[in-house]
Amino acid sequence: MDLYDYQWEVIEPALEGRNIIIWLPTGSGKTRAAVYVTKRHLQNKRNAKVAVLVNKVHLVDQHYSKEFHPHLKDQFEVAAISGDSNEKFFFADAMKRYNVIICTAQILQNALTAQDEERHVELTDFTLLVIDECHHTHKDGVYNKIMEIYTEKKLRGDRELPQILGLTASPGTGGSNKFENAKLHILQICANLDARKIMSPKTHRPQLEEKAPQPQKVFDLTDQRAWDPFEEKLKGVMMSIHEYLDVPGLFGTELGTQIYEQKIVELEKEGAVEASRKKRVCALHLRKYNDALLIHDTVRMLDAFKTLDIFYTLEKIRKTQNDPTEQFLFRVFDENQGTLRQLAMDKTNENPKLLQLEKTLLEHFGASADSRGIIFTRTRQSAHSLHEWMGATGGLAQLARKAAVLTGAGSSSQTKHMTQNEQQEVIQRFRQGELKLLVSTSVAEEGLDIPECNIVIRYGLMTNETAMIQARGRARKETSTYSVLANRGGKEERRERTNECLEELMIRAIKAVQAMPEAEYLLKIGELQRDSIISRKVKQQKLDDKKNTYRAQDVRIHCRNCHEPVAYGDDLRTVEKSHHVNIKPDFKIYYRVSDTPIDFGREMIDWTPGGSISCHCGQEWGMEMIYRAVTLPAISIKNFVMEALDGKRFTHKKWKDVPFAVEELDYAEVCEMHFPE
How many whole angstroms separate alpha carbon 326 and alpha carbon 229? Predict the structure, then answer.
C-alpha cells in the first residue's frame, strides 16, 4: 500500500499501538491510512480482531468494497455487516470467523447488549476499533455508548482494551462561539475516545494541500419576491384559524418560521393534555399551513399547495367530520382552495431560488457530460419536490432523467422512507456514472466518496459548521465548486458566514489542544472521563427514579385524538427492549389495520412487520408486528396521552421518558393469552 508522506506522519502513533484521532480534510485519504494501520495491527498482534464502525448504512459497503477488502483480502477475512445482512443475527459467530468486521455502530451496540449467545460479544473481544466520523462520539450518540463501556473498563483497571483509531474532518465547536468552550469540546471528544493525540500534518502540510485541494466557494444569492400573493393568502387563512381558536400569544410570532412551529407543537401538546380537541386539532392544521409556508419558501408554490391539498383529502377520509372544529377547518380550506390553486399556478411569482438553481445547474451540466453533483436540501419533501421541478423545467428535463433522490431510511410522516437497499442502489448508480446528480438530505453529507463529484449545492440550508465542512467535502474533483444558494441577506446566508467563523474557531481550538503539554493533557482527559462516568450514573439514577413515579397498572392510556381510554400501562411489554406492544388480545377492538404490510426493506430478529394500525377516530397508533407467530400491536407513545390515578395527564415523544416501568415480554405468557387451550 502506498501512502503519502502526510499520511505516514499522522499514523505514526497508531502504528505504535496508541489511541489517536486522525484529523484530515475530506478527500485526503483518512480511510486509506486507517486500512494501513489495520493491516499492520493484524500482522503484528496475536489473535487480532478489528471492528470498523460507521454511522451511515451506505458507508459499510463503501469502506468494504473500496478500501478494506481490496487491500486486505489476500491475507485476511473481511466482512461487511449492515441492517440487511443476516450475519447481524449471528454477530458472535461472525466475529470468530472474520479478522475485520465493518458495520454500523448500532449493530455492534446491539451485540454488546444482546442476551443471546448467537449475537453477544464483549468489547474486549476486539483489539482495534476504527471509528469513522468520530466527532459523533458525544452525548447520547451510539458511538459514545460504546465508548462509555470502554471508559468504565479503563477506570476499573482493565488492561485488555482495544486500541482506538478515530477519523474526522470536522470535530466542530460543540455549538459554542467562545474559544475556551470550543477547546473544551475538542478535549471532551478526545476523552470520550481515550485519544492520546489529535494527529494532523505539520511537516508535510504543503503536500496535503496539494493532494486535497478545497473546492471554490461561491455564494449564489437571490432577492426576495417583490410581491407574494400566495404567501399572503396562506397567512390570511391562518389568521382566520387564529381568530376561531382565540388563543393569546400566537399573533406575536412570525408565520412560516421554525419558532412559530415550536409554538404550535406546544399548543397541540396542551390540547392533548387538556383533552381540548379544538386547541389540538387547530394546532395540527396550523402546523400543516406553516409547513406549506416553509415549502413555498424552499421550492414551488405548487408543492406547497399540493401538501395542503393531500393533507385535507386524507383528513376527510380518516376523520368522521362530526367534530365542529374539523368541520370549520375543512370549510375554511374548501372556501380558499380554488384561490390558492390559481395563485400556485401563476409562474410570474415563482420562487427566485429555483431560477438561480436552474441557472447554476445549466452552467455545470449544460456543456459538460462529465459533471457530477449533489444538491443538499433540508427535508425529504423538498428533495422530492426539487426532483419533480427539474422534470417539469424544460432546460433541466434531460438532467432530471439522470438524477435521483437520496433520503434517510428512517420512517417519516412527510414521504415514504427509502429502504437501505434503495439507498445502496441509488449510490451505486451515482458512483458508476449512470446518475449525474443526487438531490439529497443530510444522509449523503458524511463519507460519500465520489472522486468525480465536481459541484455541491447547499440549497437554502441552515446547519452548523460540521455539516458545512462535510457537505463541502463531497466536491472531490479538482477545480470543483461549492455553491451556497440562499436569499440575499437572509438567515441561511448569515448562518453560512457564521459557520466560516466557527470553522476558524474549531481550527484554533484543535491546535491549542495539540499544543498542550502531555502531562497537562492527560490529566485533563482523565478528569473529563471520570466526570462523564459520574454524570451518566446521575442521569441514569434520575431515569430510574422517574420510572418509579407510578405503577404501570395505575396509568391509563388514551388516544391522543379522541381521548378514548384504550389500555393500562401494565398491558404493555417490550420486545428486544425497544418495541412496546400491548399483549392483551381484546385490545384489537380499539383499532383498525391497513391492508398492506409495512416494508422496512430488511429483516428483523424474531419478528416481521404487519400493517399500520389506527384508532377508529383516524388517529395513527403504530403497527402490528408478528412476533414468533403471535400478532401484537406495537404502539408509538407520541400518539397517546397518559393519565395517572392522581389525575395528572402527560404526553411523551419517546417511551424511555414515560414515568412507569414496562416489563420485557414473556413469550410463554403471551402464547397462553393468545392461544388458550
Answer: 26
